[in-house]
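Severity: low
Component: inverse-folding endpoint
Summary: output formatting inconsistent between runs
Steps to reproduce: submit the following structure tokens with default settings.
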């Protein structure tokens, strides 16, 4: 027959085992929670950010496609964030005349932003910009035409809800550049870099053209000539009124 001492020891051992088991379960739960916080939660945040990014790119691309000729105000909704209109420099035409180089900049937060400029859509990460959708360029045997949407109005908007944006065409003008030189004077390096890339892509896309690209700081010039015959360089300026 077990003594009272033996029964007490058994009870103590059982209590100790239960406490150890509870501590081990809590430790496992803590590890699982840590793994969830380190791996799963950031991944879900990244996926949510990418969904917002994709939605923003889709809306901005729709605005660019709309600029092909819609002459009434069209309304869009960007994901929550900030939206602003900025002047990025000038585009020179003839005899020193110039047109404003403007952009719409949307930022969902963080180091990433998106925008429309020269009829294309760009993305910037940590100060480095690249085209997502190249500006539309029309080329036939005699004419090379670039688009230049100019955004007018005061778009400065920040919201935790979707951002409303109205875009309406006010004026359309075609400019023939007699020198066949297209010069862009950008206010910032990232904008100048985008035009260097655009001109390089144009040279790659059209093997019937010779394109000489030069750069002096943020001033970029592309001189166009046809390998056979003549080429006429045109700039399609469309002025849009924007409202939020």
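Observed output (run 2 of 3):
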């Amino acid at each position: 027959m077990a003594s009272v001492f033996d029964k007490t020891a058994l009870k103590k051992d059982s209590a100790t085992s239960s406490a150890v088991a509870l501590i081990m379960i809590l430790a496992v739960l803590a590890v699982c929670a840590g793994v969830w916080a380190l791996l799963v939660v950031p991944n879900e945040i990244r996926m949510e950010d990418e969904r917002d990014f994709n939605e923003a790119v889709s809306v901005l691309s729709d605005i660019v496609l709309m600029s092909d000729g819609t002459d009434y105000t069209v309304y869009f909704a960007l994901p929550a964030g900030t939206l602003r209109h900025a002047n990025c420099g000038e585009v020179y035409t003839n005899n020193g005349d110039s047109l404003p180089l403007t952009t719409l900049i949307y930022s969902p937060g963080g180091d990433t932003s998106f925008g429309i400029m020269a009829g294309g859509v760009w993305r910037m990460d940590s100060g480095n910009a690249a085209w997502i959708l190249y500006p539309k360029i029309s080329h036939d045997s005699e004419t090379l035409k670039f688009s230049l949407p100019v955004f007018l109005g005061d778009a400065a908007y920040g919201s935790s809800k979707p951002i409303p944006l109205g875009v309406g065409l006010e004026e359309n003008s075609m400019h023939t550049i007699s020198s066949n030189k297209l010069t862009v004077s950008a206010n910032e390096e990232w904008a100048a870099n985008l035009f260097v890339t655009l001109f390089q892509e144009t040279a790659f896309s059209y093997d019937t053209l010779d394109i000489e690209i030069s750069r002096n700081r943020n001033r970029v010039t592309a001189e166009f000539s046809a390998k056979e015959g003549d080429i006429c360089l045109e700039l399609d300026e469309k002025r849009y009124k924007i409202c939020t």
